[in-house]
Amino acid sequence: MIEFIRACDKYELDCASSINFRMPNYEISPKEFLEFADIDLRDTTVKGKVGAVSNLKRALDCQLDMFFEAINIKSIFDSKNLKFSKKIQFLSDIGMLLTKSMNKLNTIRNRMEHNYLVPTIEDLEVYYEMVWNVIEIINLNVHIMKMGEIRYEASAGQEKFYIVNGYDISKRSFWFKITQRKTRDTNSIIKSLYKQDDYTEYVRAFQVFRCNIGFSESENAKEYKKRLKEISLIDI
Fold it and tell me: What string of DSSP letters covers the chain?
């Protein structure tokens, strides 16, 4: 599908419809945990530093769980008892966050949690800023993903195709439909996440989904084709 779309020579956006992504409401929000951590950071004692670590950890875990629940895959992470590193790897794989940033975040977290070292104020401040950034990035992405049912026309020579994509939350499935304008012949692709073997193609479908949203905002065909090529070359 990626190669087919890249082979087209013209793209014209039709419209974008909303998808009902909803972040769940927990009794304590990630932002509240951040506020608690901010209070702890003003206490320079060991107790204050340890409290800051705990609340920053809760803020990040809470935000990740909210995101996974919004796209309906939290139960998969829970059933497999997948740890923090797997969760942030997923965000990195779909292109939401950079791998280098995620690895740095995990290194700081592990140093504080598993080596039983009293963190420095400098480490805590870096950790706080990174957690704050991750929370903001996830919230922004969910907001953008709400307009993720994209419709546009693509042309390959004299042939025209109508392309539609979206996400079925209940079935945790990305779907893509390509319809030949003249003959009305339609090809459909559905990529769901239910088991480990589904991961690679689900992630790649997620990347294309986000790429299509980016095109709907910019309508920059050159950048769109470049991004699709990058997705096709990514080793997941």
Answer: -HHHHHH-SEEEEEEEE---------SS-HHHHHHHHHHHHT--SHHHHHHHHHHHHHHHHHHHHHHHHHTT-HHHHHHTT--HHHHHHHHHHTTSS-HHHHHHHHHHHHHHHTS-PPPPHHHHHHHHHHHHHHHHHHHHHHHHHTT-EEEEEEEETTEEEEEEEEEETTTTEEEEEEEETTT--EEEEEEE-SSGGGHHHHHHHHHHHHHHHHHHHH--HHHHHHHHHHHHH---
pLDDT digits (tens, 9 = 90+) for 55-92: 999 999 999 999 999 999 999 999 988 888 889 889 99
What pLDDT is recorded for position 82? 85
Residue 173, pLDDT score? 97
For the entire predicted model, the pTM comes to: 0.91
pLDDT of residue 75: 93
Neighbour tally for 236: CB within 10 Å: 12
